Each structure stands twice: as structure tokens, then as C-alpha cells.
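Entry 14. Two folds queued back to back today. First construct below, sequence then C-alpha cells.
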Amino acid sequence: MTTYLGAMSVTGRALATALVLCGLSAAACGGGTADLARDRVGVPPAAATTARPVTGDTAAPLTGPAAGAASGSAASPTAAGKPLSGKVVVIDPGHNGQNYRHPAEINKQVDVLTKRKACDTTGTATANGYSEAAFAWDVSQRLDKILKSRGAKVVLTRQNNNGVGPCITQRAAIGNKAKANAAISIHADGAGPANHGFHVIMPKKINGPVDPVVKDSEGLGIDVRDAMKRGTGLSYSTYIGKAALDYRNDLGGLNLSTVPKIFVECGNMKNPTEAAKFQQAAFRQKIALSLANGLQQYLTH
């Protein structure tokens, strides 16, 4: 995604409850659901890289109540090692690998309540052509495996990285239909190469369907933010938001959601250091595990 302005400050969340968490304008993520504004809509990213196989659930321990649940300690009501049993999580891997081949389809305008914008976008890519769509798909596959191993029911908004879309409106509808306890849209940004760090995007009230879950979405965002910082070692974004948190009202995937939902910009694919990390399977696994830990913290406290 390209750099955007207007980041808003965020109020803190009580420490007791907050531990473990672009679109046609020049104002959004360089790799997310069509929601985040792209700098080059319809332009194909250089040779997308095939996602690597998923590896195991390792590293980045939890803290607080989620820690006992994950470890299956006697103190946990889910000692069988299924702390997320009964929970539904929707994972939205940003963009899709063939979006760039279908500009008419993905540029179709849809209503996101606060404006009209493209159905979807191509996303961004690293300098050597590793696409955001491939990155998001790989991390999502890893996250899916981890969450299922912890007992969650997982629904993905797309089933592969060889298709088109779905539109941002459909992505929101999938989470709503699933009655998800939490939904997460996975992206990576496409800002200037000097910029670095990750950030989390949360919804604002718009007198629309998202309003009842804005507060819960903030809680989800903070838990995932904290887990990302602890589990990946990535810095908070140096160019968007405050303490890696940002609120927006122009993303259809958030505006149309009736379940707690956030977007995670895992870092900047145009930054050489972060781009190199994103192309390492072990680091993508670390991101997935961190996201899982943040989701678990939110869902179990």
C-alpha cells in the first residue's frame, strides 16, 4: 500500500485487558484487501512468489490467561489444549494472485457506506517481485493451521492465491455470515523504502453496521498489536498511526463488518530489511504465531 495521511491518535486500553495485538487514493495499504488504497491499481506485481509449506506451531509464548489455556495447564478450563474450542475466526488474506489480470473486475466500484471504491486491488510487492497477495496467503495458511490446532473453527475469505477478489464487500459479508468471534485481514504495506514497522487498522463509528463492534475491534487490535511486537520484534510503524494503532472509516471490510474485525499491515514490503524478512518462511511463521497469540488473548479474556 502507498503511504496515507490522517493517522489518528488512539486512547489506551486498560492494561488488565490489553496484553498480547488500501481503494484508489494515495491513502492506504500497499497490500491488503481491495479496501486499502493501492498506488498502482491494476498493475501486475513482478513475478509473484509461490507460498511455502506451512510449518509447525512454535515459539512466541503467551502471557496472562491465554498462556495457561495454550499450555493446557490445570488452571485452564480448557486443559485439553484446545483453548479456542467453540470460537470462530475469519481470516481475510489481502488481495488475490490474479487480480492484476482482471482490471475491469477489480476496479468495479462498490459501496462501502462512506464512499464508493474499487472492488479489490492488486496489492504491492517487494523490489524483487514477491507479491503482497502471496505473502498474505502464506501467512493466512500458517495462521489457519495454528488456530485449528487450538480448537478454533476457521473460515477464509478466499481459498487459494490463483483467483480474483472477492470484492471487499463480500469479504465483510463472509465474516458476518460466519458470526465470527473475531476477523482479521492480513496485509503488508507499500510505502516509501525508508519507512518501516507494522501497524493495525481498526474501524471508526460511521452510523452503520460496524458501530456496535467498534469497541471490541479496538480491543482485538490492541491484543494483536502487543503480540506482534513481542513475537516478531518488528517496530511500530514509523509513518502511520500512534503506537502502531490507526482508526479508519473508509475501508469496506471494516465499515460493513458486524463482527469484531481489524486489518494488520505486517510491515513495509518496500523497505529492504522487512522485505527480506517477509521472504523467509521462518519469519512468516513467526508472524502467524504472533497473530494467533493475539487472537487467543482477545478471545480468552
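Second construct, same run, same settings:
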Amino acid sequence: MPALPRLTGSDVVVAPPAGGPGNWAGGPSAIMFDSSVFLAYRLRRPIGSGRGYANVVARSSDGVHFTTVAEVTRERFGGASLERPALVVTPEGRWRLYVSVATPGTKHWRVDLLEADEPGKLGDAPALTVLPGSAEIGVKDPVLHFDGLRWHLWASVHPLETPEHADRMSTWYATSPDGVDWAWQGVALAPRPGHWDARGVRLSAVSVHEGTLTATYDGRATAEENWEERTGTATGALGPDGLFGPLTAAPAAPCGSPHPPHGLRYLTTVPGRLYYEVTRPDGAHELRTEPVLS
């Protein structure tokens, strides 16, 4: 199963913009490229003070200390808020940043794509909506995998039939020949009634080895736990058609912060290192990293 945080021996990568609840640094997406770690993440202030105001792309030679190479703000997309980005490099060497954008005055989310020939140019790249959602669903927080033939994507989908229940989420699975035009294949992971993830589930990272998929995911039991999800694990398998089937959640208890309300979410990995967003003692969220011990 995927490694989960131990919370000891970890380092703060990015501090929140201020102290207290609603101030967050996190939502990381990390990749290795040319012996460097590239990290995309979201910065957020409380509701009424800016919400998710920026996505940042940064580079590090040691996996701990990062230098910003690009930044985009919510105003760039006409959005009310930004959430977790997804950073990938295509086989052709193109850099892509998938940005989750909240539609003003609604509970709707969509995903836009920025593409450039180097990471420092992502901040000026034109935006293309690739996962528009609909009047019935909002879509955000994609996780991507390229298998050499096609792109696979898992995204958090929120039903929008009633605003008071729009926090509910399941993870849907999609495929694409180019990472731009996507076809939904079905629900990959759904909430489990009576469990710690009964209200919502959202994949945060995937790893594929010899046809077996292992994943980490965020979950919560109630609407009150929104924004303070904890992290669990799940597994799936590649079918004979080249598509991944539904995932099965592990029975183990989730991993959370020792500080109430115990949020630990958006875990992502590169070889030998974890990155995650975690609740601090003052209720703010910070982005931390720790090595994976063999």
C-alpha cells in the first residue's frame, strides 16, 4: 500500500498566508524532472478574504526548499476561488498545469488547462477549459497518469442539485488520447455509508505497477468535516480493455493531523518523499514534506 505520513521528521515547505482557520498552504501536486522536484500548490485565505487566491509552481533541488517559477491568480480565470492544481509533463516535453476554478456565485467548479514549453511560462499560458462540469456537477482536483498510450484521470465530482449538499463528493474516472479531450468512464471511488469517508471521497495520488493501482484519497464522514478531510488508501486494477476499474478502500483507519480538527489531505508523492496539507495547532493549514523510510 502507499506510504502514509508519520508526521515526525517532517519539514514545512510552505506556510499559510496568515494564522488561524481558513488560511491554507497546500493542495500539492509534485513531480520529478531532471533530478529536481517541481511542486504546484494552492494558497488560500478565509471566505470573505480571498478564498483560494493563487496556484504556484516551484522548483527544488533537495525536495524541501523551493523557488517559485510561476504563479497564477483566481482573477486570471474569472474565478471565485482556486483549488488544488495538477502538474504534469507530456511525453513531448510540454508542461501542463490543470487548474480547479470555482464559478462565482455558485457551488460549481471546472478545470482549466495551461500549457507551455517550460514551467516558468505557465503563468502566461492561455487557459483552455477541459473539464467543464455541468449544471448538475462540479469537477475539481484532478489526478493524472499516462501509461504510454493514453491519459487517465481521477477527479472529485460534486452533485449540485441542492446547495446545502454540494460538499458531497465522489471520485470519477476519465480517459483521453491527448490529456485535453476527456471521456468519463464511471465512478472510481464512492463514499461508504457508516465509515469515516461516508460524506465524500477524493483521490489525491495514484501509482501503477504491473497492472495494479494503489492510491491515497481524502475522505470525511460529515458536512462539518468539510476542508478537514483525512487520508486513506485504496487499490484497483487495470482491465483487459486498458481501463482501470473501480477502487476498493482499505479497511484501515485514516491518517490525520494530531491537531483538531485533524485535517491531513491532498497527499502527493515523488520517489522517496511525501507532500501533504495538514492542520496546524492554530487551525491554519501548512504544506509539509517528509522522506519515505524504506
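Quick look at the second one. The chain has a mean pLDDT of 97. The first strand starts at residue 11 and ends at 14.
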